[in-house]
Hints:
Layout: H1 4-34, H2 48-53, E1 60-62, E2 69-71, H3 75-123
Antiparallel strand pairs: 1-2
Amino acid sequence: METECDVITNVLHRTAALFLEFWKRYSARLAHRWDVFDYQPAAEHPRPEYLAKLRGAKRTTVNYITQTTEPMPSFWTRKVPAFVSSWTLVVLMIMVSVVAVFGVILYRMSMTVVLHFTEEVMTG
């Protein structure tokens, strides 16, 4: 015995499977057109633009795949600005949420008081 929910779920699953099959076909077509079937990102050397940005890096590390020496970015110049900006945004969004909840509470309290006083005026 099938219900309406079973039918909807079945349609959604078939749609998802169809989408995935078409996506695989599209991805294979792009890989063939761009000639990147054997692309392995782990074996790729760093881009020259990236190496130019790291020219002044003091520390180096050995890439365990290519066994070449590569400059290692400084923690303070690469990680800290992203960390600070992302956490600032998270804290800002939390504060906006708290202010919105507080505003709703104040609105409901004020409407309760106004409705209470209008009931007193109406009843006499």
